[in-house]
Design goal:
The chain has 135 residues and is mainly alpha-helical. 84% of the residues lie in helices and 0% in strands. Helix 1 runs antiparallel to helix 2.
């Protein structure tokens, strides 16, 4: 602001035509008004940003409360199921081996059934459909 005031004083101190001096003074005053508008807009933007930040914090707190309620309900709903497991731990070696063997058996069975189905298709028919873009 000091620079703007010094520039205005310099313009008013010059010995030029009165109309030119008046126009330069009006331009300097207009420049001051623009700086004031920018300062007010900046203050307004800062208020809006603070309001937005406050709203986001409030929404975050509400979502945190909802998540805590959901986790509490989840813990309560798993209590009856965990009592039916009779002491089986999540890292129980027998359970891990049994689950892995079960998944492997299903995978092998799926592969076998797919291969068995493929053997029932006539190769010439398959090639004919493949050539037409059908699969």
């Amino acid at each position: 602001m000091k620079g703007i005031i010094a520039e205005g004083e310099e313009t008013m101190g010059e010995d030029e035509e009165a109309a030119l001096t008046d126009a330069a003074t009006a331009c300097a005053a207009r420049r001051v008004e623009h700086y004031e508008m920018a300062a007010y807009a900046g203050a307004h933007v800062a208020d809006l940003l603070q309001q937005n930040l406050d709203e986001e914090r409030e929404a975050g707190e509400k979502l945190g409360d909802i998540a805590a309620e959901i986790l509490q309900m989840t813990d309560d709903s798993f209590a009856p199921a965990s009592s039916q497991l009779y002491g089986v731990a999540p890292n129980d070696p027998a359970t891990m081996v049994l689950a892995t063997a079960g998944i492997a058996a299903v995978t092998v069975l799926h592969g076998y059934l797919t291969a068995l189905r493929a053997t029932c298709v006539d190769p010439i028919t398959a090639l004919r459909y493949e050539g037409e873009g059908r699969s």
